[in-house]
Amino acid sequence: MMDARKMMKTLSFCGLVFLGFLLLFENRIVLPIGLQVAGKFHTLLLHFPIVLLCLVLLVLLWKESWIQTATWKNFESFTVLTTVVTAILGFLLSIEQTDIGNVLSWHKWSGTVLAFLSYLIIFYRERFFVTEIKLRIASGFMFLVLIITGHWGGTITHGDGYLTAAFQNNKSASLVLSEVRIFKDVVQPILADKCGNCHKASVMKGGLSLEDSISIFKGGKNGKAIVAGSLDKSLLYQRLVLPMTDKKHMPLAEKPQLSASELALIEEWIKLGAPFAQLLVARAETDSLRIMSMPFLENRLKKASEKSYDFKAASADQIAELNNNYRVVKPLGLASPALAVSFFGRANYSFDQLKTLKPIANQIVHLNLAKMPVTNEQLDWISNLENLEALNLNYTDIDNTNLKALAGLKHLHSLSIVGTKINQKGLETLTVFPELKALYVWNTDITLAELKTMQSKFPAIQIETGFQGADTMVIPLNQPIINTAAGFFKDRINISLKHVINGVELKYTLDGKEPDSSSSLYTAPFWIDSSFKLTVKAFKKGWLPSKPVNSQYFKAGIPISKASLLTPPDPKYALHADKILIDLDAGDPGDFGTRALGYQKNDAIVVLDMGKPTEIHGLKVLNLQNIGAYIFPPVQMQVLGSNNMQEWKQLSNQRYAMPIKMIGASTPFLHLNFPASTYRYLKFSAKPIPTLPEWHPGKGQPGWFFMSELVVY
After folding, report:
1. ∠ Cα 61 66 72 (to 5°)
2. Helix, strand and coil percent figures for the chain, each rounded to 5
3. Residue 39 dihedral angles phi and psi, to the nearest 5°
4. Long-range pairs, 21-30, Cβ under 8 A, ≥24
5. Residue 682: burial class (beta carbons within 10 Å; 0-12, 13-18, 19+)
6. How far apart are CA 659 and CA 662, in angstroms?
7. DSSP state, residue 485
8. Cα–Cα separations (whole angstroms), residue 651 to 140, 617, 655, 662
9. Closest C-alpha among 48, 51, 54, 53 to residue 89
């Protein structure tokens, strides 16, 4: 009978042959279900050969006599076998998941080399590694391959730099606003942080990389990740908004998720055409995408402003001595040698006070002389501040006469001359300054036409002209505030509205239509005793109307004693199943997991117990719909009535037309009306859509039906 060592050697050899077959023909292989499941054990077993190989290599270098025993040789053989099996399972996993990428390829090759080396060193060291030096070299090389293989495997699972991250500079680079690009500096960092571990050029799970525009528009095996301007066709967005408990939700539930602001930015970016190379400043300051991008840039823009300086800091005693009630001297930042100086009180300013700053002239980086009686002659002294970067001369007494003196300020990048006697000739003098990037010039003798000419002539300088036409500008009002919380009410509800601006007229509707000037005027809180959708809009003379704000209210029906589920909802969407349908708490279309019951593989069937025979006229179902997340209205709904739970009479049976395009998330009431009847028990059933339509990204897959509340009336 073959002993254990020979058997494991034979199995290991067969495994290496199979491994070579997988390596050569992996692109042509279609795995049966059994092998797909087996591949998933790779991540479970891979830790065993790592530990065993390390132990074997250490003992080989130790060269104790007991390593020649049969027990130890069987242990070595088992180590080789587990190494080969783990490598095979890794190949099966990569084929089943259709992942591609450079790191994955290197990981597979290094794993194969490691399995082959372990086989060679353990079973043939007496033939090929007879000397100690040869064995040490071979063992050291195999240990190096083991580390590299583990590093690449960790990179696939945990992200770039799995073993080397501690030695890398992970500080985010600083930015200059004028150079910020929408995708590279705003969108791509979010994708890299939350999706980059799985969807990068080196891994590409599902064949998808999110690192550049070509890869993103190309998409992966399931379709295009982004379709510019279309949220409905952008698979990336659809996966992001799926419920956390859905297996197709991305990122995976155990991974860090996108924040609400990150998701909103991605949504806005796609809606506005998914711009890639566009500069952020090319969009208007009021542009929604620019506004939403700024919080993500704040820290990096701040770092850009925190410049380091090579000159020595002034002493604390010097700074304290120069500070008084009309002059403030302070460091630009914590531990920074750069100083900012500001003057206050025009009547208390003199040229001598400016010259008193000579001991710290080398450290002055920002100088604010706004509204001081600064004359042309004083510009010569200011020109000696060799490290000056920002100078404010707003509403001073300077003109064109001596502006050329400031040309000696080699680091000056910001100059403000608002409200001075500077004209176009003086402005042309300033534009030749070597480092000037920003120039503030409104309320001067320069005409608007001349400013526009200068802006086109010197595009490298940002010439700020101030706001033109403030007297004629009309801006929209803030949205009204609805004080009354939305949701269910029993008998009637009091509606209270307000606005932050006095004298505003609030117009409202109760049917969901957008109010106009002829709609009802809100004058005081009022009562409503039936379900309605409140929409409110603010109006005021001299202002644009506000955007509408709305809130939905549902009147509770006849009290229901108990709701019993005859068919279970999907386990992922069954929280509070015993009471959720009659708790008078409306579901949120964005929160499927906690406020609604979800059905996909079977019909939803519920029996309602009214407690006693009750006259009823119909039943309403609060149905959650989110077409992009595969949640559709039901194909069919039915209501039966009974007084003994044995004999049932059909009261209503309705089929529903399915949507023919993507629509936004909503919570409509679906009505089942019937002639007045008296019953104690009602049996309600709803059938989910069996397959999604051809126009939907998930075509052919089963859809979902979600309900949050049942109301009997």
Report:
1. 85
2. 35, 20, 40
3. -60, -30
4. 22/88, 22/91, 22/92, 22/95, 23/91, 23/108, 23/109, 23/112, 26/91, 26/94, 26/95, 29/95
5. buried
6. 7
7. P
8. 80, 10, 14, 32
9. 48
Residue 119 in tokens: 């086989």
**Alpha-carbon span 705 to 691, nearest angstrom:** 12
78 alpha-carbon distance from chain centroid = 46
Q: In a 10 Å sphere around its CB, with 0-12 CB exposed, 13-18 middle and 19+ buried, how is residue 285 labelled?
A: exposed
- Tokens, residue 278: 């566009």
pLDDT, position 95: 61
C-alpha angle 31-34-37 in degrees, rounded to nearest 5? 90
Average pLDDT per block of 10 residues along the chain, 713 residues long: 75 82 70 62 69 77 63 81 80 60 70 82 77 76 80 64 50 68 86 73 67 72 80 82 74 76 86 84 81 81 67 92 91 85 91 94 94 94 94 93 88 90 84 82 80 79 63 70 87 91 91 90 93 92 87 89 93 83 72 77 95 94 86 94 94 92 80 94 96 87 91 91
Up-side HSE of residue 67: CA atoms within 13 Å toward CB?
14
Phi and psi at 29, nearest 5°, equal -90, 135
**Residue 630, φ and ψ in degrees, nearest 5:** 75, 15
In this structure, the strands spanning 327-331 and 339-343 are antiparallel
Cβ 357 vs Cβ 382: under 8 Å: no
CA torsion angle 282 288 289 295 (round to 10)? 110
- The pLDDT of residue 125: 76
Identity of residue 268: E
- Residue 628: predicted pLDDT: 79
Pairing status of strand 669-687 against strand 604-624: antiparallel
Are the C-beta atoms of 691 and 703 separated by less than 8 Å? Answer: yes
* Cα–Cα distance, 711 to 191 (Å, whole number): 43
3-state secondary structure of 614: strand
Which of 464, 457, 458 lies closest to 443 in space, CA to CA? 464
Contact 629, 243 (CB under 8 A): yes
3-state class (DSSP) for residue 546: coil
Cβ-based burial of 378 (10 A; exposed 0-12, middle 13-18, buried ≥19): buried
Question: What span, in angstroms and rounded, lies between the C-alpha atoms of 507 and 513?
Answer: 11
* Distances in whole angstroms, Cα of residue 666 to Cα of each of 267, 589, 622: 18, 6, 10
Q: String of b and e for 335-373 (b: at least 16 CB within 10 Å)?
A: ebbbbbbbbeeeeebeeeebeebeebbbbbbbbbbbbbe
Q: Strand 414-416 relative to strand 390-392: parallel, antiparallel, unpaired?
A: parallel
**Alpha carbons 106 and 440: distance in angstroms, whole number:** 56
Distance CA 375, CA 570 (A): 80
Q: Which residues contact 147 (CB under 8 A, 6 or more apart)?
A: 163
CA–centroid distance for 107 within its chain = 30
CA-CA distance, 382 to 388, in Å (whole number)?
Answer: 9
The per-residue pLDDT for 43 is 63
Neighbours of 464 (CB within 10 A): 15
Q: Cα Rg for the chain, rounded, in angstroms? A: 37
Contact 83, 183 (CB under 8 A): no
C-alpha–C-alpha distance, residues 233 and 217, integer Å: 12
Per-residue CA distances from 185 to 179, 180, 189, 329, 462 (Å)? 9, 6, 6, 35, 21
Stated pTM of the model: 0.43
Residue 497 per-residue DSSP state: E
Question: Measured between alpha carbons, how far is 342 from 350 in angstroms, rounded to an integer?
Answer: 13
